[in-house]
Amino acid sequence: MKFPGRRRHKHYFPVEDKDPLTKQLISANSLKRSYIVGIDQIVVDIEAKVDSSFLTKFGLHRGMSQVIDDETTQALYQELQDKNLVDYEFAGGTIGNTMHNYSVLADDRSVLLGVMSENIKIGSYAYRFISNTSSRVDLGYLQGVDGPIGRCFTLIDESGERTFAISPGLMNRLRPESIDEDLIAGSAALVISSYLMRTEKEDTMTQAAIKAVKCANKAGVPVVLTLGTKFLIEQDPVWWQTFVAEHVDILAMNEEEGFAITGFEDPLLAANKALDWVDMVICTAGAQGMFLGGYIDECWKRHTKHALMPGAITDFNQYEYSRAMKRIDCETPIKAFTHSAPYMGGPDAIKNTNGAGDGALAAVLHDLSSNVYHKLNVPNSSKHQQKALTYSSLSQISKYANRVSYEVLVQHSPRLSRGLPEREACLDQAHWEQ
Ligand SMILES: Nc1ncnc2c1ncn2[C@@H]1O[C@H](COP(=O)(O)OP(=O)(O)O)[C@@H](O)[C@H]1O
Ligand SMILES: Nc1nc2c(ncn2[C@@H]2O[C@H](COP(=O)(O)O)[C@@H](O)[C@H]2O)c(=O)[nH]1
Protein backbone atom coordinates (compact mmCIF):
# COMPACT_ATOMS: atom_id res chain seq x y z
CA MET A 1 0.00 0.00 0.00
CA LYS A 2 1.32 3.34 -1.04
CA PHE A 3 -0.10 5.86 1.40
CA PRO A 4 -2.02 8.87 0.14
CA GLY A 5 1.25 10.76 0.49
CA ARG A 6 2.24 14.18 1.56
CA ARG A 7 0.82 16.95 -0.54
CA ARG A 8 0.10 20.46 0.63
CA HIS A 9 -0.08 19.30 4.23
CA LYS A 10 2.28 17.31 6.33
CA HIS A 11 -0.14 14.87 7.95
CA TYR A 12 0.27 12.04 5.46
CA PHE A 13 2.85 9.48 6.41
CA PRO A 14 3.43 5.88 5.47
CA VAL A 15 3.01 3.11 8.06
CA GLU A 16 6.75 2.46 8.16
CA ASP A 17 7.60 6.07 8.99
CA LYS A 18 5.06 6.47 11.74
CA ASP A 19 7.06 5.19 14.62
CA PRO A 20 10.60 3.79 14.76
CA LEU A 21 9.43 1.11 17.22
CA THR A 22 6.68 -0.23 14.98
CA LYS A 23 9.17 -0.10 12.16
CA GLN A 24 11.26 -2.69 13.99
CA LEU A 25 8.24 -4.83 14.78
CA ILE A 26 6.90 -5.04 11.28
CA SER A 27 8.85 -6.71 8.56
CA ALA A 28 7.54 -5.94 5.10
CA ASN A 29 6.56 -9.51 4.28
CA SER A 30 4.43 -9.94 7.41
CA LEU A 31 2.22 -6.98 6.56
CA LYS A 32 -1.46 -7.78 6.23
CA ARG A 33 -3.04 -6.43 3.06
CA SER A 34 -6.27 -4.52 2.62
CA TYR A 35 -8.23 -4.48 -0.64
CA ILE A 36 -11.48 -3.14 -1.99
CA VAL A 37 -14.07 -4.87 -4.18
CA GLY A 38 -16.08 -3.25 -6.97
CA ILE A 39 -18.89 -4.59 -9.13
CA ASP A 40 -19.42 -3.26 -12.63
CA GLN A 41 -20.96 -3.79 -16.00
CA ILE A 42 -17.78 -4.51 -17.94
CA VAL A 43 -17.67 -2.07 -20.87
CA VAL A 44 -15.23 -0.53 -23.30
CA ASP A 45 -15.67 3.20 -24.05
CA ILE A 46 -15.79 4.13 -27.73
CA GLU A 47 -15.35 7.86 -27.88
CA ALA A 48 -16.36 10.02 -30.83
CA LYS A 49 -17.02 13.70 -31.51
CA VAL A 50 -20.45 14.12 -33.06
CA ASP A 51 -22.89 16.94 -33.72
CA SER A 52 -26.33 17.19 -32.18
CA SER A 53 -28.01 15.96 -35.39
CA PHE A 54 -26.19 12.64 -34.87
CA LEU A 55 -27.84 12.30 -31.46
CA THR A 56 -31.26 13.15 -32.90
CA LYS A 57 -30.81 10.66 -35.74
CA PHE A 58 -30.29 7.80 -33.31
CA GLY A 59 -32.95 8.97 -30.85
CA LEU A 60 -30.42 9.67 -28.08
CA HIS A 61 -31.13 12.03 -25.19
CA ARG A 62 -28.31 14.53 -24.87
CA GLY A 63 -26.29 14.23 -21.64
CA MET A 64 -27.84 10.90 -20.64
CA SER A 65 -26.43 7.41 -20.26
CA GLN A 66 -28.95 5.21 -22.08
CA VAL A 67 -29.17 1.61 -23.23
CA ILE A 68 -29.56 1.03 -26.99
CA ASP A 69 -30.78 -2.07 -28.84
CA ASP A 70 -28.72 -4.18 -31.27
CA GLU A 71 -30.20 -2.58 -34.36
CA THR A 72 -29.38 0.96 -33.20
CA THR A 73 -25.92 -0.21 -32.14
CA GLN A 74 -25.17 -1.60 -35.59
CA ALA A 75 -26.37 1.52 -37.42
CA LEU A 76 -24.63 3.89 -35.01
CA TYR A 77 -21.34 2.03 -35.09
CA GLN A 78 -21.48 1.81 -38.90
CA GLU A 79 -21.96 5.56 -39.18
CA LEU A 80 -19.08 6.26 -36.79
CA GLN A 81 -16.87 3.97 -38.88
CA ASP A 82 -18.00 5.34 -42.23
CA LYS A 83 -17.32 8.91 -41.16
CA ASN A 84 -14.14 7.98 -39.34
CA LEU A 85 -15.41 9.62 -36.16
CA VAL A 86 -14.02 7.26 -33.51
CA ASP A 87 -11.26 9.03 -31.59
CA TYR A 88 -10.40 6.40 -29.14
CA GLU A 89 -11.41 3.04 -27.61
CA PHE A 90 -10.45 2.26 -24.05
CA ALA A 91 -11.58 0.22 -21.04
CA GLY A 92 -14.36 2.07 -19.19
CA GLY A 93 -17.25 1.52 -16.80
CA THR A 94 -17.74 3.78 -13.85
CA ILE A 95 -16.58 1.20 -11.27
CA GLY A 96 -13.99 -0.36 -13.58
CA ASN A 97 -12.43 3.11 -13.86
CA THR A 98 -12.61 3.60 -10.11
CA MET A 99 -10.95 0.24 -9.31
CA HIS A 100 -8.22 0.93 -11.86
CA ASN A 101 -7.57 4.41 -10.47
CA TYR A 102 -7.60 3.14 -6.89
CA SER A 103 -5.03 0.47 -7.74
CA VAL A 104 -2.82 2.98 -9.53
CA LEU A 105 -2.97 5.45 -6.63
CA ALA A 106 -2.53 2.89 -3.86
CA ASP A 107 -0.21 0.66 -5.90
CA ASP A 108 -2.25 -2.11 -4.35
CA ARG A 109 -4.93 -4.68 -5.01
CA SER A 110 -8.55 -4.11 -5.84
CA VAL A 111 -10.92 -6.80 -7.08
CA LEU A 112 -13.33 -6.22 -9.95
CA LEU A 113 -16.46 -8.37 -10.20
CA GLY A 114 -18.44 -8.59 -13.41
CA VAL A 115 -18.46 -10.71 -16.55
CA MET A 116 -15.82 -11.41 -19.18
CA SER A 117 -16.06 -13.17 -22.54
CA GLU A 118 -14.85 -16.75 -22.20
CA ASN A 119 -13.23 -16.76 -25.63
CA ILE A 120 -11.11 -13.68 -26.13
CA LYS A 121 -9.68 -12.82 -29.54
CA ILE A 122 -6.65 -10.55 -29.75
CA GLY A 123 -7.85 -7.02 -30.48
CA SER A 124 -11.45 -7.70 -29.37
CA TYR A 125 -13.18 -5.43 -26.87
CA ALA A 126 -12.71 -7.99 -24.11
CA TYR A 127 -8.99 -8.09 -24.91
CA ARG A 128 -8.84 -4.32 -24.89
CA PHE A 129 -10.59 -4.11 -21.53
CA ILE A 130 -8.10 -6.46 -19.92
CA SER A 131 -5.06 -4.87 -21.48
CA ASN A 132 -6.14 -1.34 -20.46
CA THR A 133 -6.67 -2.33 -16.82
CA SER A 134 -3.96 -2.03 -14.16
CA SER A 135 -2.32 -5.35 -13.30
CA ARG A 136 -3.07 -4.45 -9.66
CA VAL A 137 -6.79 -4.92 -10.39
CA ASP A 138 -7.55 -8.56 -9.69
CA LEU A 139 -9.66 -9.84 -12.59
CA GLY A 140 -9.49 -13.42 -11.35
CA TYR A 141 -13.04 -13.33 -9.94
CA LEU A 142 -14.73 -12.25 -13.19
CA GLN A 143 -17.45 -14.66 -14.33
CA GLY A 144 -17.11 -16.06 -17.84
CA VAL A 145 -19.91 -15.52 -20.37
CA ASP A 146 -20.42 -16.96 -23.84
CA GLY A 147 -20.60 -13.65 -25.73
CA PRO A 148 -19.46 -10.03 -25.78
CA ILE A 149 -18.94 -7.57 -22.95
CA GLY A 150 -20.64 -4.15 -23.22
CA ARG A 151 -19.74 -1.12 -25.31
CA CYS A 152 -20.27 2.43 -24.15
CA PHE A 153 -20.43 4.91 -27.05
CA THR A 154 -19.23 8.14 -25.49
CA LEU A 155 -20.51 10.82 -27.85
CA ILE A 156 -19.16 14.32 -27.31
CA ASP A 157 -21.08 17.10 -29.01
CA GLU A 158 -20.14 20.67 -30.01
CA SER A 159 -20.74 21.98 -26.47
CA GLY A 160 -18.52 19.31 -24.89
CA GLU A 161 -21.53 17.51 -23.38
CA ARG A 162 -21.16 13.72 -23.16
CA THR A 163 -23.97 11.39 -24.16
CA PHE A 164 -23.49 7.70 -23.36
CA ALA A 165 -25.14 5.03 -25.51
CA ILE A 166 -24.71 1.60 -23.96
CA SER A 167 -24.78 -1.53 -26.06
CA PRO A 168 -25.00 -4.02 -23.21
CA GLY A 169 -23.85 -7.31 -24.79
CA LEU A 170 -23.83 -9.72 -21.82
CA MET A 171 -22.54 -7.17 -19.29
CA ASN A 172 -25.55 -7.67 -17.01
CA ARG A 173 -25.31 -11.46 -16.71
CA LEU A 174 -23.29 -11.60 -13.50
CA ARG A 175 -25.03 -14.28 -11.42
CA PRO A 176 -25.57 -14.12 -7.63
CA GLU A 177 -23.69 -17.42 -7.20
CA SER A 178 -20.59 -15.74 -8.69
CA ILE A 179 -20.43 -13.43 -5.66
CA ASP A 180 -17.84 -14.75 -3.22
CA GLU A 181 -19.13 -13.84 0.24
CA ASP A 182 -15.77 -14.31 1.97
CA LEU A 183 -14.08 -12.01 -0.53
CA ILE A 184 -16.58 -9.27 0.25
CA ALA A 185 -16.58 -9.84 4.00
CA GLY A 186 -12.77 -9.45 4.07
CA SER A 187 -12.65 -6.23 2.05
CA ALA A 188 -12.17 -2.61 3.14
CA ALA A 189 -15.16 -1.48 1.03
CA LEU A 190 -17.67 -2.71 -1.53
CA VAL A 191 -18.12 -0.22 -4.37
CA ILE A 192 -21.20 -0.22 -6.62
CA SER A 193 -23.01 2.17 -8.97
CA SER A 194 -26.65 2.92 -9.64
CA TYR A 195 -26.18 1.53 -13.16
CA LEU A 196 -26.23 -1.99 -11.68
CA MET A 197 -29.95 -1.56 -11.02
CA ARG A 198 -30.70 -0.77 -14.68
CA THR A 199 -31.31 -4.27 -16.03
CA GLU A 200 -33.76 -6.24 -18.18
CA LYS A 201 -35.82 -9.32 -17.20
CA GLU A 202 -33.26 -11.91 -18.28
CA ASP A 203 -30.41 -10.11 -16.53
CA THR A 204 -29.07 -11.19 -13.15
CA MET A 205 -26.73 -8.26 -12.36
CA THR A 206 -29.15 -6.51 -9.98
CA GLN A 207 -29.68 -9.66 -7.90
CA ALA A 208 -25.92 -10.27 -7.81
CA ALA A 209 -25.28 -6.69 -6.68
CA ILE A 210 -27.96 -6.88 -3.99
CA LYS A 211 -26.50 -10.14 -2.70
CA ALA A 212 -23.06 -8.51 -2.46
CA VAL A 213 -24.51 -5.45 -0.70
CA LYS A 214 -26.35 -7.56 1.89
CA CYS A 215 -23.21 -9.57 2.49
CA ALA A 216 -21.19 -6.36 3.04
CA ASN A 217 -23.89 -4.96 5.34
CA LYS A 218 -23.81 -8.15 7.41
CA ALA A 219 -20.02 -8.12 7.67
CA GLY A 220 -19.85 -4.40 8.57
CA VAL A 221 -17.97 -3.60 5.35
CA PRO A 222 -18.77 -0.06 4.11
CA VAL A 223 -20.93 -0.02 0.99
CA VAL A 224 -20.00 2.83 -1.32
CA LEU A 225 -22.56 3.84 -3.95
CA THR A 226 -21.85 6.22 -6.82
CA LEU A 227 -24.99 7.60 -8.42
CA GLY A 228 -23.73 7.47 -12.04
CA THR A 229 -26.31 9.68 -13.73
CA LYS A 230 -29.13 11.93 -12.54
CA PHE A 231 -31.60 10.48 -15.06
CA LEU A 232 -31.66 7.11 -13.34
CA ILE A 233 -32.27 8.65 -9.94
CA GLU A 234 -34.98 11.01 -11.20
CA GLN A 235 -37.05 8.02 -12.31
CA ASP A 236 -37.69 7.01 -8.70
CA PRO A 237 -35.96 9.20 -6.08
CA VAL A 238 -37.89 7.65 -3.21
CA TRP A 239 -36.69 4.13 -4.10
CA TRP A 240 -33.11 5.42 -4.14
CA GLN A 241 -33.49 7.29 -0.86
CA THR A 242 -34.77 4.12 0.81
CA PHE A 243 -32.06 1.95 -0.73
CA VAL A 244 -29.36 4.40 0.33
CA ALA A 245 -30.72 4.71 3.87
CA GLU A 246 -30.98 0.93 4.30
CA HIS A 247 -27.82 -0.31 2.60
CA VAL A 248 -25.29 2.42 1.80
CA ASP A 249 -22.58 3.87 4.07
CA ILE A 250 -20.82 6.25 1.69
CA LEU A 251 -22.54 8.11 -1.13
CA ALA A 252 -20.71 9.65 -4.11
CA MET A 253 -22.55 11.98 -6.48
CA ASN A 254 -22.17 15.13 -8.53
CA GLU A 255 -24.36 18.14 -7.86
CA GLU A 256 -26.98 17.12 -10.45
CA GLU A 257 -27.31 13.63 -8.97
CA GLY A 258 -27.34 15.23 -5.53
CA PHE A 259 -30.29 17.39 -6.57
CA ALA A 260 -32.08 14.37 -8.02
CA ILE A 261 -31.85 12.32 -4.83
CA THR A 262 -32.12 15.02 -2.15
CA GLY A 263 -34.10 17.80 -3.82
CA PHE A 264 -31.38 20.31 -2.88
CA GLU A 265 -29.67 22.17 -5.71
CA ASP A 266 -26.89 23.56 -3.52
CA PRO A 267 -24.24 20.79 -3.28
CA LEU A 268 -23.55 21.60 0.38
CA LEU A 269 -27.23 21.26 1.29
CA ALA A 270 -27.48 18.09 -0.81
CA ALA A 271 -24.50 16.66 1.10
CA ASN A 272 -26.10 17.72 4.39
CA LYS A 273 -29.36 15.95 3.48
CA ALA A 274 -27.51 12.81 2.38
CA LEU A 275 -25.95 12.59 5.85
CA ASP A 276 -29.45 11.77 7.16
CA TRP A 277 -29.00 8.44 5.32
CA VAL A 278 -25.27 7.71 5.17
CA ASP A 279 -22.07 8.15 7.19
CA MET A 280 -20.08 10.01 4.57
CA VAL A 281 -20.87 11.86 1.36
CA ILE A 282 -18.82 13.15 -1.58
CA CYS A 283 -20.50 15.72 -3.78
CA THR A 284 -18.41 16.92 -6.72
CA ALA A 285 -19.51 20.11 -8.42
CA GLY A 286 -17.47 20.54 -11.62
CA ALA A 287 -15.66 23.87 -11.73
CA GLN A 288 -16.86 24.57 -8.15
CA GLY A 289 -14.71 21.73 -6.82
CA MET A 290 -16.05 19.31 -4.26
CA PHE A 291 -17.81 19.05 -0.92
CA LEU A 292 -17.14 16.23 1.48
CA GLY A 293 -19.28 15.60 4.54
CA GLY A 294 -19.19 13.15 7.39
CA TYR A 295 -19.76 12.56 11.08
CA ILE A 296 -17.40 13.07 13.97
CA ASP A 297 -17.81 12.51 17.64
CA GLU A 298 -17.80 15.66 19.76
CA CYS A 299 -14.74 14.40 21.67
CA TRP A 300 -12.69 13.93 18.46
CA LYS A 301 -13.58 17.13 16.64
CA ARG A 302 -10.68 19.23 15.40
CA HIS A 303 -11.04 22.88 14.48
CA THR A 304 -9.82 24.03 11.11
CA LYS A 305 -6.90 26.38 10.75
CA HIS A 306 -8.33 27.63 7.46
CA ALA A 307 -10.71 30.56 7.21
CA LEU A 308 -14.31 29.71 8.03
CA MET A 309 -16.28 29.56 4.81
CA PRO A 310 -19.55 31.22 3.90
CA GLY A 311 -22.30 28.97 2.63
CA ALA A 312 -25.82 27.72 3.22
CA ILE A 313 -24.60 26.18 6.50
CA THR A 314 -22.82 28.68 8.73
CA ASP A 315 -19.13 27.89 9.33
CA PHE A 316 -19.67 24.55 7.63
CA ASN A 317 -15.95 23.82 7.46
CA GLN A 318 -15.18 24.51 11.13
CA TYR A 319 -14.37 20.84 11.88
CA GLU A 320 -12.82 19.91 8.55
CA TYR A 321 -9.56 18.88 10.23
CA SER A 322 -11.38 15.87 11.75
CA ARG A 323 -11.32 12.29 10.53
CA ALA A 324 -14.73 10.96 9.50
CA MET A 325 -16.49 8.37 11.66
CA LYS A 326 -19.55 6.17 11.31
CA ARG A 327 -22.47 7.91 12.99
CA ILE A 328 -23.15 4.81 15.09
CA ASP A 329 -19.62 5.04 16.55
CA CYS A 330 -20.22 8.61 17.79
CA GLU A 331 -21.61 9.24 21.26
CA THR A 332 -22.42 12.82 20.30
CA PRO A 333 -22.37 12.95 16.49
CA ILE A 334 -21.64 16.23 14.73
CA LYS A 335 -21.91 16.76 10.99
CA ALA A 336 -18.69 18.14 9.50
CA PHE A 337 -18.04 19.40 5.98
CA THR A 338 -15.20 20.61 3.86
CA HIS A 339 -14.97 22.24 0.47
CA SER A 340 -12.02 22.28 -1.93
CA ALA A 341 -11.80 24.38 -5.04
CA PRO A 342 -10.31 22.58 -8.07
CA TYR A 343 -6.60 21.91 -7.69
CA MET A 344 -4.57 24.91 -8.91
CA GLY A 345 -7.86 26.51 -9.96
CA GLY A 346 -8.36 23.75 -12.55
CA PRO A 347 -6.28 23.00 -15.64
CA ASP A 348 -5.69 25.64 -18.32
CA ALA A 349 -7.06 23.23 -20.87
CA ILE A 350 -9.40 20.38 -20.02
CA LYS A 351 -8.76 17.44 -22.35
CA ASN A 352 -11.71 15.39 -21.21
CA THR A 353 -14.03 15.51 -18.19
CA ASN A 354 -14.80 11.80 -18.54
CA GLY A 355 -14.16 10.12 -15.20
CA ALA A 356 -13.22 13.22 -13.16
CA GLY A 357 -15.75 12.21 -10.49
CA ASP A 358 -14.64 8.55 -10.58
CA GLY A 359 -11.07 9.79 -10.00
CA ALA A 360 -12.15 11.74 -6.92
CA LEU A 361 -13.92 8.66 -5.56
CA ALA A 362 -10.81 6.52 -6.11
CA ALA A 363 -8.82 8.95 -3.93
CA VAL A 364 -11.42 8.76 -1.14
CA LEU A 365 -11.34 4.95 -1.34
CA HIS A 366 -7.56 5.05 -1.14
CA ASP A 367 -7.76 6.98 2.10
CA LEU A 368 -10.43 4.64 3.51
CA SER A 369 -8.43 1.54 2.64
CA SER A 370 -5.21 3.07 4.05
CA ASN A 371 -6.99 3.35 7.38
CA VAL A 372 -7.95 -0.34 7.30
CA TYR A 373 -4.41 -1.25 6.26
CA HIS A 374 -2.88 0.79 9.04
CA LYS A 375 -5.28 -0.69 11.59
CA LEU A 376 -4.55 -4.25 10.43
CA ASN A 377 -0.82 -3.70 10.82
CA VAL A 378 -0.51 -1.23 13.69
CA PRO A 379 -3.67 -1.93 15.72
CA ASN A 380 -2.27 -0.37 18.88
CA SER A 381 -1.40 2.90 17.20
CA SER A 382 -2.83 5.91 19.00
CA LYS A 383 -4.41 6.72 15.67
CA HIS A 384 -6.95 3.94 16.23
CA GLN A 385 -8.10 5.08 19.64
CA GLN A 386 -10.53 7.00 17.53
CA LYS A 387 -12.79 4.57 15.66
CA ALA A 388 -12.54 6.49 12.39
CA LEU A 389 -13.58 5.55 8.86
CA THR A 390 -10.77 7.51 7.23
CA TYR A 391 -7.03 7.76 7.62
CA SER A 392 -6.92 11.51 7.00
CA SER A 393 -9.05 14.50 7.82
CA LEU A 394 -11.96 15.50 5.61
CA SER A 395 -9.96 18.53 4.51
CA GLN A 396 -6.98 16.51 3.34
CA ILE A 397 -9.06 13.87 1.61
CA SER A 398 -10.95 16.43 -0.43
CA LYS A 399 -7.72 18.13 -1.49
CA TYR A 400 -6.31 14.78 -2.50
CA ALA A 401 -9.49 13.90 -4.42
CA ASN A 402 -9.41 17.22 -6.28
CA ARG A 403 -5.77 16.64 -7.13
CA VAL A 404 -6.66 13.29 -8.69
CA SER A 405 -9.59 14.79 -10.63
CA TYR A 406 -7.18 17.38 -12.03
CA GLU A 407 -4.93 14.60 -13.31
CA VAL A 408 -7.91 12.98 -15.06
CA LEU A 409 -8.93 16.28 -16.64
CA VAL A 410 -5.52 16.86 -18.22
CA GLN A 411 -5.38 13.46 -19.90
CA HIS A 412 -7.62 11.88 -22.46
CA SER A 413 -8.70 8.72 -20.67
CA PRO A 414 -10.82 8.42 -17.49
CA ARG A 415 -8.14 6.02 -16.24
CA LEU A 416 -4.90 7.29 -14.73
CA SER A 417 -1.83 6.17 -16.62
CA ARG A 418 0.38 6.64 -13.55
CA GLY A 419 0.19 7.55 -9.87
CA LEU A 420 0.56 11.08 -8.57
CA PRO A 421 4.08 12.48 -8.25
CA GLU A 422 5.77 11.98 -4.86
CA ARG A 423 6.42 15.70 -4.75
CA GLU A 424 4.36 18.33 -6.45
CA ALA A 425 6.52 20.40 -8.76
CA CYS A 426 4.38 23.46 -8.02
CA LEU A 427 5.38 23.44 -4.35
CA ASP A 428 8.70 24.98 -3.42
CA GLN A 429 11.42 23.03 -1.62
CA ALA A 430 10.60 24.70 1.72
CA HIS A 431 7.25 22.90 1.80
CA TRP A 432 8.98 19.50 1.97
CA GLU A 433 11.46 20.60 4.60
CA GLN A 434 8.86 21.69 7.20
N1 LIG B 1 -14.57 22.76 -15.48
C1 LIG B 1 -13.80 22.37 -14.46
N2 LIG B 1 -12.82 23.18 -14.00
C2 LIG B 1 -12.03 22.81 -12.97
N3 LIG B 1 -12.15 21.63 -12.33
C3 LIG B 1 -13.10 20.79 -12.73
C4 LIG B 1 -13.98 21.10 -13.82
N4 LIG B 1 -14.83 20.06 -13.99
C5 LIG B 1 -14.49 19.13 -13.06
N5 LIG B 1 -13.46 19.56 -12.29
C6 LIG B 1 -12.81 18.82 -11.19
O1 LIG B 1 -13.23 17.45 -11.25
C7 LIG B 1 -13.99 17.09 -10.08
C8 LIG B 1 -15.13 16.18 -10.46
O2 LIG B 1 -15.89 16.81 -11.46
P1 LIG B 1 -17.43 16.57 -11.76
O3 LIG B 1 -17.64 17.10 -13.15
O4 LIG B 1 -18.26 17.18 -10.69
O5 LIG B 1 -17.56 14.98 -11.68
P2 LIG B 1 -18.48 13.96 -12.51
O6 LIG B 1 -17.54 13.38 -13.52
O7 LIG B 1 -18.91 12.94 -11.50
O8 LIG B 1 -19.62 14.74 -13.07
C9 LIG B 1 -14.41 18.41 -9.46
O9 LIG B 1 -14.58 18.26 -8.07
C10 LIG B 1 -13.24 19.33 -9.83
O10 LIG B 1 -12.14 19.13 -8.94
N1 LIG C 1 -21.07 0.53 -15.73
C1 LIG C 1 -21.53 1.56 -16.47
N2 LIG C 1 -20.69 2.57 -16.75
C2 LIG C 1 -21.18 3.59 -17.50
C3 LIG C 1 -22.51 3.62 -17.97
N3 LIG C 1 -22.71 4.79 -18.66
C4 LIG C 1 -21.52 5.45 -18.62
N4 LIG C 1 -20.60 4.74 -17.94
C5 LIG C 1 -19.18 5.02 -17.69
O1 LIG C 1 -19.00 6.22 -16.99
C6 LIG C 1 -17.68 6.68 -17.22
C7 LIG C 1 -17.63 8.18 -17.10
O2 LIG C 1 -17.91 8.53 -15.80
P1 LIG C 1 -18.37 10.01 -15.36
O3 LIG C 1 -18.28 9.97 -13.85
O4 LIG C 1 -17.40 10.97 -15.96
O5 LIG C 1 -19.76 10.20 -15.86
C8 LIG C 1 -17.32 6.22 -18.63
O6 LIG C 1 -16.01 5.66 -18.66
C9 LIG C 1 -18.38 5.17 -18.95
O7 LIG C 1 -17.85 3.92 -19.32
C10 LIG C 1 -23.36 2.52 -17.65
O8 LIG C 1 -24.57 2.45 -18.01
N5 LIG C 1 -22.83 1.51 -16.90
Describe the protein's architecture and organization:
- With 434 residues, this protein is α/β, with parallel strands linked by helices.
- It has a domain at 222-434: UDP-N-acetylmuramoyl-L-alanine:D-glutamate ligase (3-Layer(aba) Sandwich), CATH 3.40.1190.
- Helices cover 33% and strands 20% of the residues.
- The chain contains 15 helices and 18 strands.
- The protein has a nine-stranded mixed sheet, with helices on both faces. A five-stranded mixed sheet has the order 3-10-9-2-4, covered by helices on one side.
- A hairpin with a 5-residue loop joins strand 14 (280-284) and strand 15 (290-297).
- Helix 5 packs across helix 13 (356-377), helix 11 (255-262) packs across helix 12 (267-274) and helix 13 (356-377) packs across helix 14 (394-409).
- It is globular and about 65 Å long.
- The protein starts with 14 loop residues before the first helix and ends with a helix.
- 49% of the residues are buried.
- Mean pLDDT is 92; it is low at 7-16.
What distinguishing features does this structure have?
434 residues, binds the ligand Nc1nc2c(ncn2[C@@H]2O[C@H](COP(=O)(O)O)[C@@H](O)[C@H]2O)c(=O)[nH]1, binds adenosine-5'-diphosphate, 9-stranded mixed beta sheet, UDP-N-acetylmuramoyl-L-alanine:D-glutamate ligase
Q: What structural category arises from helix and sheet content?
A: alpha/beta
Ligand inventory reads: adenosine-5'-diphosphate, the ligand Nc1nc2c(ncn2[C@@H]2O[C@H](COP(=O)(O)O)[C@@H](O)[C@H]2O)c(=O)[nH]1
CATH architecture of the domain at 222-434: 3-Layer(aba) Sandwich
Question: Based on DSSP secondary structure assignment, what is the total number of beta strands?
Answer: 18
Largest sheet strand order: 7-5-1-11-12-13-14-15-17
What percent of the residues sit in helical stretches (DSSP H or I)? Answer: 25-40%
Number of DSSP helices? 15
CATH class of the domain at 222-434: Alpha Beta
State the end-to-end distance: 25 Å
CATH topology of the domain at 222-434: UDP-N-acetylmuramoyl-L-alanine:D-glutamate ligase
Uncertain segments: 7-16
Major sheet details: 9 strands, mixed
Percent in strands? 15-25%
